[in-house]
Write a structure and sequence with these properties.
single chain; alpha/beta; UDP-N-acetylmuramoyl-L-alanine:D-glutamate ligase; 3 domains; globular
Length: about 500
């Protein structure tokens, strides 16, 4: 990051300098006292179990020269103590301030499933022309995203920022920090529905990503998702009030008027949605960026792009799955918005490979393993089953599925629906881990599908079973919520016998 003075920081976060020199400059910001760089500002986050104020001394020992504090009232010493009301909010305020020092455009990515892959594909497409900053790892939260802002440097042309949310009001806070001028919504699924109760509520929260939009901003939505397609259709004026859950009316006071979407969203989001240009990507007829003639050949996905500009351009992806076609369409659409034609941006997409634990295909003893163990939702499990079905050169197809968490009172139904979905396809065996995932096996059995099912309570039981029963020619898909640590299964299976 570019250096900031203590004086600047105090002003940015509406803080008070308790002690230290306001002219000292900090070179980085960290919330981890053990992996802090010399010259850093330490931000002690107050969590449910740990109050990181207890580690301020450790941070200074490791090289920090300043810290935020909401605990101390007065201090003496050479290090800078900056008093703030709330350290997490102060971090967000500082991230937002640092963001304003740069004029580069930010592309914000949100959705229930596929945020990371879409972010990676968009970055790959944009990198064919620009110097791109993209979110590192899972730095997409109220703590991670402001820390990500400090990675911006003057040499960057554009930033692709992942923005995750799991509770009411979270996306609005992230938007104040990142201030995206373009946003991509991948889908509205049931992730975090335990907290937000309905998909409509999830859409409402995620739509806050547009709250920083300006006059020429663009919202890219997945037209294959029914709730996002309502936004697309309403913006294009294709449906009437009676035909949609989005009641709409022509806004005659706006130049280049769109239909005003009277959905349950914040007033800020409503105003921004009226002015925004909405562009849809997907496979349905109303999508502005549409994939046709989708096919799988020798482990690659091929499709024809239809968008009126690059009409008929053949796109090749080195990954499988219809969800990756939609992710690629989002990337092609965003690249086109920033002046990159499809015949150029598709080169970046062809080179894209999944990152760790997000669909990587690994092989040992002629057994192919799809490692999608990072996290899970019911929708992403269904998408992963399609990758398993499209995999070439396997004789048995085995899905290893663990609990999906944070589904609240509809957890059983969601898991059961995954099983009912699998029952319609030629999967040979399903192995489940955990109490919730057992409903997947139950649905398969209830449907009378000719699919072997085995259910286990923990990873070790599943590992023992799989090691004793897998054989050459098998294809194995492994997925579960992060808490279930299904990466342990992947690691165990990749060990030489």
């Amino acid at each position: 990051m570019d250096e900031l003075s203590i004086k600047e920081i105090v002003a940015a976060v509406d803080g008070e300098l308790l002690c230290g020199d306001e002219n000292v400059r900090i070179a980085s910001v960290s919330t981890n006292s053990n992996s802090i760089e010399p010259g850093a500002l330490f931000v002690p986050i107050v969590g449910e179990r740990v109050d990181a104020h207890d580690y301020i001394d450790s941070a200074f020992t490791h090289g920090a020269i300043a810290c935020f504090t909401s605990r101390h009232e007065s201090m003496r010493g050479s290090q800078a103590y900056i008093k703030v009301k709330d350290t997490k909010e102060a971090l967000q305020m500082l991230g937002a301030y640092y963001r304003t020092r740069f004029t580069l455009p930010v592309v914000g990515i949100t959705g229930s499933v596929g945020k990371t892959t879409t972010k990676e594909m968009i970055a790959a497409a944009l990198a064919t022309k620009y110097n791109v900053l993209k979110t590192d790892g899972n730095m997409n939260s109220q703590i991670g995203l402001p820390l990500m802002m400090f990675h911006i440097h003057s040499e960057h042309d554009i930033a692709v920022i992942e923005m995750g949310m799991s509770e009411v009001g979270e996306m609005a806070k992230l938007t104040l920090v990142a201030k995206p001028e373009v946003a991509v919504m991948t889908n509205i699924g049931v992730s975090h529905i335990g907290q937000l109760k309905t998909r409509e509520n999830i859409r409402k929260e995620k739509l806050n990503i547009i709250n920083s939009f300006g006059k020429d901003s663009v919202l890219f939505v997945n037209g294959d998702d029914n709730l996002l397609n309502e936004i697309n259709e309403t913006a294009k004026g294709y449906i009437s009030n009676k035909e949609s859950n989005l009641s709409s009316e022509i806004n005659k006071d706006k130049e280049n008027s769109h239909f005003s979407a009277n959905i349950d969203i914040s007033e800020t989001s409503r105003d921004k949605l009226i002015e925004a240009n909405v562009v849809a990507f997907g496979t349905t007829p109303l999508c502005d960026y549409r994939a046709e003639n989708i096919r799988t050949i020798e482990g690659k996905t091929y499709f024809t792009l239809r968008n009126g500009k690059d009409d008929g351009e053949e796109i090749i992806l080195s990954v499988l799955g219809i969800h990756n076609v939609n992710n690629a369409l989002a990337a092609l659409a965003v690249a086109s918005h920033y002046g990159i034609p499809a015949f150029v941006s598709k080169l970046g997409l062809y080179d894209y490979r999944p990152i760790a634990m997000r669909g990587q295909i690994k092989e040992i003893n002629d057994i192919k393993i799809i490692d999608d163990s990072y996290n899970a939702s019911p929708d992403s499990m269904k998408g992963g089953i399609q990758i398993l079905l499209e995999m070439d050169g396997v004789t048995r197809r085995i899905a290893v599925l663990a609990d999906v968490l944070e589904l609240g009172e509809i957890s059983y139904l969601c898991h059961y629906e995954v099983g009912a979905y699998i029952a319609e396809y030629k999967v040979d065996e399903v192995v489940t881990i955990g109490t919730e995932a057992a409903a997947i096996a139950k649905a398969i059995q209830d449907k009378g599908a000719q699919i072997i099912t085995n259910s286990f309570t923990n990873n070790q039981e599943a590992i023992t079973y799989l090691k004793n029963n897998l054989k050459a020619g098998d294809g194995v898909f492994i997925k579960g919520s992060r808490y279930m640590r299904t990466d342990e299964i992947v690691k165990a299976l990749l060990e030489e016998k």
